[in-house]
Amino acid sequence: MPLYSTQNIKLYNSLSGEKENFTPIHEGNVGMYVCGPTVYSNVHLGNVRTFMSFDIIFRYLIHLGYKVRYVRNITDVGHMVDDIDEGEDKIAKKARLEQLEPMEVVQRYTVDFHQTLKAFNFLPPSIEPTATGHIIEQIEIIKQIVASGIGYEANGSIYFDVVKYNENHNYGILSGRNIEDMLANTRDLDGQSDKKNPQDFALWKKAEQQHIMRWPSPWGEGFPGWHLECTAMSTKYLGNHFDIHGGGMDLKFPHHECEIAQNEACTGQTPVNYWMHANMLTLNGKKMAKSTGNNILPGEILSGDNTILSKPFPASVARFFMLQAHYRSILDFSDDAIVAAEKGYKRLMEALDTLNQIPTSKTSSLDIAAWKQLCYDAMNDDFNTPILIAHLFEGVRYTNILKDGKETLTEADLTTFKKAMNDLLFDVLGLENEKSSNSQNDKLEGTVNLLIEMRNQARADKNFALSDQIRDQLLAIGIQLKDGKEGTSFTI
Ligand SMILES: [Zn+2]
After folding, report:
1. 358 Cα: distance to centroid of ligand 1 (angstroms)
2. Lower Cβ count inside 10 Å, N or C end of the chain?
3. pTM for the predicted model, two decimal places
């Protein structure tokens, strides 16, 4: 029996504003789409936090035995500088400033994104589609929206008529906005725009002469609007109706509101059962911004190369720090906070070592099954990682009193306890035992240095057969010795 059949997940649905029971459309299977990065600059720490929230959800669902198809896109065209439809394409702008091809910009920052997420031990999504790889699908959706009478052409561009859509649908259903208020509060675009209403959004933009990123379409050469790609890629890989759609809180409006409108205009049905939004990260109590210097890159946490930090921190400590806040709460990053998180992380890892030294008994005086269920209850309650971590610290307390012999566990209970601690820390929270990997490295280094000393002694004794044998056999297993002025060093 899969674990999910005994656990009842409740998750907060941004659409209803309530925690709801989670029931997948197809039993045992979950389809989840998360809006990925626009790859025109280095991924920032706030992005890492957003994607970590969904990495945890992905990991927990897998842990429960669900078959999960997790789709997270790469936006490599169509995201305009001012986040609506005006201004320059973010990638085209960066390419112009750096004198690169747009696809060089895309490649550079896609690689950065992947390397960063790998460093922080993210699981890769099941599918990672790109907007430029799905131009045909996007054009097909535009044709359907135009055929429904909600899309209209103006000067080679296609726009979505929100007022017309709102006659039979609710534009604002996700963000809680009201179209009359939106229209009343929007500046008229002084006749510069081809839109019928200021809130209308672009499905297809005509490419001006100098615009490099362009594709042929029934309406002339152009490029797709930003909101459209997620509608095209989510439904292509998950179907017209799927379980979970997530993203950062800032995407709720207009991006996700527009996605719902596009789907409903096309298929007549709402695409997503559960909308989930992850909250933002602040730095020393303030919004992060490159312009004010109140900014930190994820890699700088690992290198310590930022004046905000007192020292470098392992990726698992950064991960642990972020998971101490619930994904729907704002999280503030500071040096003091991550230093404190490091202490907590070390206590947890030390407890895992201690667990291996606990003797078993004929009887159990602790209720491990009840403790374990409390851990799962925390995750079942809208993926509440801070509460889970509190229970894991209770597990640390158990470990210490078991070690002192004040309480006892049977062999079966001890096995359950150890497995639960390991499963939750490593599989679900995605932490790694930095200490054990470091101590492995320490042992290797110590061993090779010992062999180097023995070789030096052999050479001093003129026993060249032995010194050559040490050098050659180390090389055979991939360790190369290098003799220099400062003595002998090695590379693996
Ligand atoms: Zn999106």
Report:
1. 49
2. N
3. 0.88
Cα–ligand 1 centroid distance for 234 (angstroms): 9
Q: Is residue 298 reached through a cis peptide bond, with omega within 30 degrees of 0 on the bond before it?
A: no
- Region 133-160 average pLDDT: 96
Q: What's the chain's Rg over C-alpha atoms?
A: 28
The Cα–Cα gap between 302 and 312 comes to: 5
Burial degree of 432 (CB within 10 A; 0-12, 13-18, 19+)? middle
Distance 253 CA to ligand 1 centre (A): 11
**Gap between the Cα atoms of 51 and 246, Å rounded:** 9
CATH fold of 282-428: Isoleucyl-tRNA Synthetase; Domain 1 (1.10.730)
Calculate how far, in angstroms, residue 36's C-alpha sits from the geometric centre of ligand 1: 7
Which amino acid, 127? I
**Residue 41 φ then ψ, to 5°:** -160, 170
- Look up residue 257 and give its two tokens: 């509101």
Q: Are the beta carbons of 276 and 22 closer than 8 angstroms?
A: no
**How far, in Å, from the CA of 54 to the mean position of ligand 1?**
14
Q: How far is the CA of 155 from the centre of ligand 1 (A)?
A: 26
Q: Tell whether the torsion through CA atoms of 164, 170, 172 and 177 is positive or negative.
A: positive
Per-residue model confidence (pLDDT) at position 189:
55
Q: Summarize pLDDT for 174-210 with one digit per residue, the tens.
A: 999 988 888 887 766 555 678 899 889 999 999 988 8
Q: How far is the CA of 409 from the centre of ligand 1 (A)?
A: 49
CATH fourth-level superfamily of 3-278: HUPs (3.40.50.620)
Quote the Cα angle for 36-39-41, to 5°: 125
Query: Distance between CA atoms of 19 and 121, rounded to whole angstroms?
Result: 29
